[in-house]
Design a protein that fits this description.
Rossmann fold, 20% strand, alpha/beta, 2 domains
């Protein structure tokens, strides 16, 4: 178990895609916590939490989800994993969701991700559940301060990183996204609702730097920025110079692999504050 991990009698992981749901499950189990899974259909991958008992459910099947959790006597939740923002016309809500929908309708239709997640937290707490941050369990997967690999950003890159940090914070304060791309003193791309992968694919060019920061106002129990091996692969394929993330506030999946990939592909990786 990672030192400092939260210990609970039981925990349900409400899971989207990516590596983090399984990382949280492993760390929680190592601390003696009984772990159950709510895998979100259309978001979680086929093997997500495959070693964990639980259910599959669409996000708008709140009646089914709540009945399962209450039947198991579980009140403590972690929401973690990659999710695409739902479109209201694609939802097929059950009766419980229809009852609760007014609480999240405005941020779902017109707000940013942070506004939506805050509304979701309030709704879940109103139903008697307690939300915990993923980093309460996976403390060892949070980005360190300073250079994390072999390559060190030069003076020009450091100037671009500082510009990117300022731009990312301003972008995040508008609840618009967590990441920007900087090249030669110019912000050439800002993350939208489609996420960091789309930002890299659409705006990545040789020599650019990806800068990813937590939104100043965001609920860190629900939505920390994250990177993983695929982030490194995508940036390397576009010829990026490096990646800067907010130290202490960015989750790094498979940290050793991420650092090894960055070294192998000639990218610097640095945690900034």
């Amino acid at each position: 178990m990672t030192s400092g991990s939260l210990q609970l009698p039981s925990l349900a992981i409400v899971a989207g895609g990516g590596a983090f749901p399984d990382l949280v499950a492993d760390e929680a189990r190592a601390g003696g916590t009984k772990v159950l899974a709510v895998r979100l259909s259309g978001h979680a991958e086929p093997l997500t939490l495959s070693r964990t008992d639980g259910i599959w459910a669409r996000p708008e099947q709140l009646g089914h989800i709540f009945a399962y959790l209450r039947g198991q006597g579980v009140r403590d939740l972690v929401l973690i994993g990659r999710m695409r923002r739902p479109r209201i016309f694609d939802l097929r809500p059950d009766m419980t969701t229809l009852r609760l929908l007014p609480q999240i309708l405005w941020p779902l239709c017109a707000g940013g991700d942070d506004a939506l997640l805050r509304a979701v937290r309030k709704m879940l707490e109103g139903e008697g559940f307690r939300l915990h941050s993923a980093q309460s369990f996976i403390t060892g997967f949070v980005a360190d301060k300073g250079v994390m690999g072999l390559l060190v950003p030069d003076a020009s890159a450091s100037t671009d990183i500082a510009l990117g940090m300022e731009a990312a914070r301003a972008h995040g304060a508008r609840d618009a996204g967590q990441a920007v791309i900087v090249l030669n003193g110019v912000v050439i791309g800002r993350e939208g609702v489609d996420g960091t992968d789309v930002l890299i694919d659409a705006h990545g060019v040789a020599g650019a730097i990806l800068v990813k920061m937590a939104k100043p106002q965001q609920d860190r129990a629900l939505d920390l920025p994250s990177i993983g091996p695929d982030t490194i692969r995508r940036c390397a394929a576009k010829g990026f110079a490096g990646i800067a993330v907010e130290a202490g506030a960015t989750l790094v999946a498979n940290k050793k692999q991420v650092i090894d990939f960055a070294n192998a592909h000639g990218l610097f990786l640095v945690g900034v504050t």
